[in-house]
Write a structure and sequence with these properties.
This protein is mainly α and about 325 residues long. It has 13 helices and no strands. The radius of gyration is 27 Å and the shape is elongated.
């Protein structure tokens, strides 16, 4: 492409588009139609220049023109409570439901790994000795030891906030860095399962596994489910880099990435609930069965939310992505 000839041929159109955009709403019907046609044509010109003769200054100018044109043609809107309600009743649960083939196997394999680590530690005294002195391990596992006092070591509100922050960060790492072929996700999962397995093994060796599970299950069911959902979604994002399917890699990553960002917001709310349970229910004086029952109810409520609302939204075509009008155009629609 001869860039000088191309610019000479189309400069008048770009200048006319800029003039119409500056006039804003003071356009006649014919001028509005002209603006739409010029916007579409300029988008095509920008695509041609980017692919054939990239020029930084010209590209910057046309990019700005196309962005202003798109904002004028499609209009802008502000997020409303209706958008939040649609996200919570459709987009988020649909995204979780659609990724179930990733996070359910992740949950099963991770739980088996934690159980295996717990069995290995609990049945091998030499492994326990390598982890620390016997006196230190007894201090952790005895009645009133560190495992039990951990949940009541800080005021409930501040403890719940701290737990929520830590778990939300772990989930965000899984979602954001999943594009790196899922490797950071595997590290986060292993660290979580290692901590859980160590607790299972040490408390089992002390004959107090029931106490440990009574402390972990009330909040851990919902908390770990949220982590597994984040990890499964991150792994799915990493696999998209390898196999984008029928779409281009860029388009597939954009779609999965937008859904993952939405899921980060939704999972932050789920982890807030688990943090409140961990801060206020786990260390409470309620009987063990009552605390576990609260955790089971919270877990079943989340699963019902995903499979009922999410399944319905997914079957209706909701991908957990942003509205089509809010997505970046992939290709110009007219020359």
């Amino acid at each position: 492409m001869d860039l000088d000839v191309f610019v000479t041929a189309h400069r008048a159109e770009w200048d006319r588009l800029d003039h119409l955009l500056r006039r804003g709403r003071r356009l006649t019907g014919a001028e509005a139609d002209e603006l739409v046609a010029l916007y579409q044509r300029t988008a095509t010109h920008l695509s041609l220049i980017r692919s054939s003769a990239p020029d930084p200054m010209l590209t910057a100018r046309l990019t700005q023109l196309v962005a202003r044109g798109r904002a004028t043609v499609t209009g802008t809107r502000r997020a409303s409570w209706r958008d939040a309600a649609a996200f919570l009743t459709g987009g988020f649960p649909a995204a979780v439901y659609r990724s179930r083939h990733w996070w359910i196997p992740t949950a099963i394999l991770s739980t088996l790994l934690a159980a295996l680590i717990g069995w290995w530690i609990g049945t091998h005294p030499e492994v326990q000795s390598a982890m620390g002195a016997q006196a230190e391990l007894r201090e952790m596992t005895r009645p009133g030891g560190r495992y039990e006092t951990y949940y009541s070591s800080h005021p409930a509100a501040s403890f719940a906030a701290q737990v929520w922050t830590n778990n939300a960060q772990a989930a965000a790492v899984c979602l954001v860095f999943g594009a790196f072929l899922g490797l950071p996700v595997l590290l986060v999962l292993f660290a979580n399962m290692l901590n859980l397995g160590v607790g299972i093994g040490l408390m089992a060796s002390a004959g107090r596994l029931d106490v440990f599970l009574g402390l972990v299950l009330p909040h851990g069911l919902l908390e770990l489910t949220a982590v597994f959902v984040a990890a499964g979604t991150g792994l799915r994002l990493g696999w998209t880099v390898i196999d984008p399917g029928p779409m281009t890699r860029r388009t597939a990553l954009a779609q999965q990435g937008r859904a993952a960002i939405g899921m980060a917001v939704g999972l932050a709310l789920v982890l807030l609930v688990s943090g409140l349970i961990e801060g206020f229910v786990t260390p409470s004086g309620l009987p063990t069965w009552a605390r576990i029952a609260i955790g089971v109810v919270a877990e079943l409520a989340f699963l019902a939310y995903v499979y009922v609302l999410g399944g319905r939204a997914a079957r209706a075509g909701d991908m957990g992505d942003v509205e089509e009008a809010d997505r970046t155009a992939e290709l110009p629609t007219a020359a």
